């Protein structure tokens, strides 16, 4: 699963799942482009640390994934894109009739439309190279639903559909497009929620994780960012050359129910 010589762009990758994916791609030898909507010294320092740790080229490029023009400009600024990982995403929870329109628009833009724009900009580069891998980070909520998450679920279902369409349009061209559908993943943001949930439910850490946070995840274990990154590397490998237009669930059995 060596990816030396390939350039990977990962959106929303200065923390969480995106950073975990970028690290595993760099571990496999790919040069990486990190991205988020900020432009801080620590963002660029993060890329420098990745480059040093894995002996690859790593850059940070600011782009707001809610803006289609900036999405496309990210690909152009990178100059090359062999591997595209559409990961950027936000969430908001509310009943449909109370869901703020601005939140709906932002979630659809960042979670779904950004993947359309980056993919449209990257495909000519991949076709010119005769090789490309597009990995869209969807969700278990791209395959099933929960209440109060209408925008997120609509967007993630859309990401799954977009992945299938791109796969059909690129079949036989050396390009694949797939969606990874994680369940609950242990990130710093999720970790920070655990103490509050312990207080609200008056439970110890293990119980609140098992019975509240992972209620719908049969394994009762979080997925890790390394597992999502490893799955991404696999989809970019020779072994996955004929895997396209499908979803891979990393959800502890959630969608098997």
TrEMBL record:
Domain of life of the source: Bacteria
Keywords: Oxidoreductase
InterPro entries for the chain: 3-OHbutyrate_DH, NAD(P)-bd_dom_sf, SDR, SDR_fam
Catalytic EC class: oxidoreductase
The enzyme's E.C. designation: 1.1.1.30
Gene Ontology molecular function: 3-hydroxybutyrate dehydrogenase activity
Keyword Oxidoreductase attached: yes
Keyword Hydrolase found: no
Pfam families associated with the record: adh_short_C2 (PF13561)
Family from the record: Belongs to the short-chain dehydrogenases/reductases (SDR) family.
Name of the protein this chain belongs to: 3-hydroxybutyrate dehydrogenase
Organism field: Albidovulum litorale
């Amino acid at each position: 699963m060596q990816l030396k010589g390939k350039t990977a762009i990962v959106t929303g990758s200065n923390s969480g799942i995106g950073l975990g994916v970028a690290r595993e791609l760099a571990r496999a030898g790919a040069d990486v482009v990190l991205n988020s909507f900020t432009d801080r010294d620590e963002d660029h320092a993060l890329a420098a640390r990745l480059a040093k740790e894995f002996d690859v080229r790593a850059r940070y490029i600011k782009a707001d994934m809610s803006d289609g023009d900036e999405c496309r400009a990210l690909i152009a600024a990178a100059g090359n894109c062999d591997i595209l990982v559409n990961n950027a995403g936000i969430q908001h929870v509310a009943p449909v009739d109370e869901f703020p329109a601005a939140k709906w628009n932002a979630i659809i833009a960042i979670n779904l439309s950004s993947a359309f724009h980056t993919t449209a900009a990257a495909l000519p580069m991949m076709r010119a190279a005769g090789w490309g891998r597009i990995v869209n980070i969807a969700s278990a909520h791209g395959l099933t639903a929960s209440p109060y998450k209408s925008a997120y679920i609509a967007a993630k279902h859309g990401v799954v559909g977009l992945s299938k369409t791109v796969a059909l349009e690129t079949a036989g061209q050396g390009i694949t497009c797939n969606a990874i559908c994680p369940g609950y993943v242990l990130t710093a943001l999720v970790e920070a929620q655990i103490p509050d949930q312990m207080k609200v439910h008056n439970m110890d850490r293990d119980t609140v994780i098992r019975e509240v946070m992972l209620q719908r995840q049969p394994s009762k274990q979080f997925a890790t960012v390394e597992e999502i990154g490893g799955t991404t590397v696999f989809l970019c490998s020779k072994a996955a050359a004929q895997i396209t237009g499908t979803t891979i669930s990393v959800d502890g059995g959630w969608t098997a129910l």
